[in-house]
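Hey, I'm writing a tutorial for new members on how sequence and structure tokens pair up, and I'd like a real worked example in the thread rather than a made-up one. If someone can provide the structure for the chain below, I'll link this post from the tutorial.
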Amino acid sequence: MKFFSGFCVDIDKSFFKEYIEDKEFVTAGFSYGAQKAVDYVLNTSKRVDKLQLLSPAFFTYSQKIIELNINAFKKDKNSYIKNFLTKAGINKWKMENGEWRIDEENIQITKCDENDLYKLFTFEWERISKIKDIKIEVFLGEYDKIIALKKARDFFVNYGDVYFIKKANHFLRS
């Protein structure tokens, strides 16, 4: 299995063990990692039978909102990430030895910059239409406060199976 983590974070695929299939020809991605997973599938020569997108980073922000986010990120990256985690539904976390510990599982902060953030907000999801003969599954949390949830659901239903997880946040946890 090929797994891609979200923006500025490194999450082991076991974090989403209830949803992903840990099999040889499966590619999965969480949030920003879902965008990377789509690009991977479109550009790889390796066999992929299934693409699983977990809370794909689907945004409809104006350029002004994107710029405000980028400026806030540049000003204080750690506060920006902390606010993201809180908004995403992670309330129990602390910093230990350079790692952020969340619900007894590690999420590490990875190297990221404002260019990555810009790519996150401006990804062209329409390119998913070029994926052929690969089963696509999309997992969305009912209480996801990060993405444009309704628009994401309406968009992805055209390309694969969409699973709406009741009472779940961006990390697909209740």
